[in-house]
Q: What sequence folds into this?
């Protein structure tokens, strides 16, 4: 945390009452606020301290600060396997969410690299087949949870894929387009290919292979590893493009990691225990705040 941020976060005070005061009164500012400036009026009167502490001497007065800047620092996700479904769901939910700090996650998302994510469960590849292979791979073929989640939620997963595709298309028409690249596994595991090329890629978008199986496609030991070189190349290309267009502010403040962490936690729980949070029927009107 930078010194400038540290100087405005945490509790400031107390003012007024002693340690055995009857009550603590804590002020909390809003978005883009500040623990002092929010409560300071004309002539520099910081009224919780300068006024209230004198009028309510039996109370201790505090002001709590947190970083409330709404940065526009771009976010790039790199996601593997079912983590890509979690990411898709997060983006859909964030897009239609009315809360600014959640919607901000979608607004700031500018790139997603998918690594072996089962994006299409129709046609030759069914979601349940992917579930069976995943279960076998992790030695849980007798555990029906993975298979059942994918089987029972196949329609929702299809709707989620459609909703995600709609968002990508809508954003492509704006300055805040989302770049996507799909990487697929070149080799099979002991139980075969977990996610086939057909399932891991989407027509019309860039796709590259990684010379590894589903597990090892995320594991690199050298800057010379082919998979690393390819992923690094995509990331460098995106970052350089964002820098050239001025989409990365030099001092954009704290990023939205905390918001993402909270949101992802809930979504992962939903996907793991029945995919109850998967949202379908993405409505572009909601994205524009018209409903």
A:
């Amino acid at each position: 945390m930078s010194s400038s941020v540290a100087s405005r976060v945490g509790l400031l005070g107390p003012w007024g009452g002693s340690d055995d005061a009857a009550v603590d009164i804590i002020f909390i500012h809003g978005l883009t606020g500040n623990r002092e400036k929010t409560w300071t009026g004309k002539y520099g009167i910081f009224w919780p301290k300068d006024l209230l502490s004198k009028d309510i001497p039996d109370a201790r007065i505090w002001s709590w600060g947190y970083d409330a800047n709404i940065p526009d620092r771009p976010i790039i996700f790199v996601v593997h396997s079912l983590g890509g479904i979690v990411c898709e769901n997060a983006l859909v939910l964030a897009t239609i969410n009315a809360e600014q700090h959640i919607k901000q996650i979608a607004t700031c998302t500018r790139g997603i690299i998918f690594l072996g994510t089962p994006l299409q469960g129709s046609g030759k590849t069914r979601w349940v087949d992917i579930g069976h292979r995943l279960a076998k791979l992790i030695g849980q073929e007798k555990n029906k949870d993975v298979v059942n989640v994918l089987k029972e939620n196949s329609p929702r997963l299809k709707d989620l894929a459609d909703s995600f595709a709609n968002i990508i298309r809508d954003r492509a028409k704006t300055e805040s387009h989302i770049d996507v690249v799909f990487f697929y596994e070149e080799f099979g595991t002991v139980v075969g290919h977990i996610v086939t090329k057909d399932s891991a890629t989407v027509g019309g978008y860039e796709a590259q292979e990684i010379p590894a199986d589903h597990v090892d496609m995320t594991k690199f030991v050298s800057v010379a590893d082919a998979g690393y070189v390819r992923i690094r190349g995509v990331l460098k290309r995106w970052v350089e493009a964002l820098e050239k267009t001025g989409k990365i502010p030099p001092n954009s403040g704290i990023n939205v990691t905390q918001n993402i962490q909270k949101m992802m936690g809930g979504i992962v729980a939903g996907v793991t225990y029945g995919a109850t949070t998967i949202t379908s029927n993405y409505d572009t009107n909601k994205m524009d705040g018209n409903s």
